[in-house]
Amino acid sequence: MLYSINLLPWRDTQKQSHRKRFIHFTIMAVGLGAALQWAAGWYLDYQVNIERGRLDYLNQHIAKLDRKLDLLNLVDKEYQYLNTRFELVESLQKKRNKTTQIMVLIPQLIPEGVYVDQINMNDNSIELQGISDSTAQLATMLDRLERCSSISNVEMRSIVSGNFRFGRPFQSFQASFSIFLDGRDLTTSKAVING
User: Membrane spanning segments where (predicted)?
Assistant: First the structure.
């Protein structure tokens, strides 16, 4: 006796079950892929927003530093301007002090009988013009000028006899020298006068 067993319905059922499982897995894989893609896009947007925030903060900080730098440059320019003005005032003060020192020093070095009519000053160069009672007094003046430590390059440019003034004859002269004053006390020249 022959038995015939039909296995086809079982195979069809198994095939359908596999097909359904495959479709479910495919749908789940597509859904999971879409979810992962959406999560990755959201994460990238989130990171881009964070970086934009950092960039905005850095740009604001840079702008603030630029403003401070501009202010610092203005302060530096003002400092340079004030420093230049201070140096100018200081140089004028030194010139004024120098003129005062020269006016204090010259009478100490000019002996009696020598009269200075004109003093010309050009930086460190001084030129004297005047009259004298005698040549000996001019020699004394030259000696005092040459012995003064603040004075150098003493020259008698001219001596002219027979110049009448105040009803009597004088010798007119022109002398020049260089002077270097450093703000020290000029009493040292008194030793020259006494010497």
Answer: 21-44
Overall fold of domain 39-195: Gyrase A; domain 2 (3.30.1360)
- Dist. CA 40–CA 33, nearest whole Å: 10
Residue listed under structure tokens 């903060």: 57
Structure tokens given for 69: 């730098």
Pairwise CA distance, residues 119 & 105, whole Å: 13
The reported pLDDT for the residue numbered 10 is: 65
Query: What are residue 157's DSSP bridge partners?
Result: none
Closest CA to 123 of 153, 147, 146: 153
Count CA atoms closer than 13 A to 180's CA, side-chain side. 6
**Spans in the chain with pLDDT lower than 50:** 183-195
Query: Which residues 6+ apart lie within 8 Å of 119 measured at CB?
Result: 102, 106, 126, 127, 128, 129
Residue listed under structure tokens 């198994």: 14
Region at 153 (left for phi over 0; alpha for psi -120 to 50; beta for the rest): left
**Rounded distance between C-alpha atoms, residue 45 and residue 56, angstroms:** 16
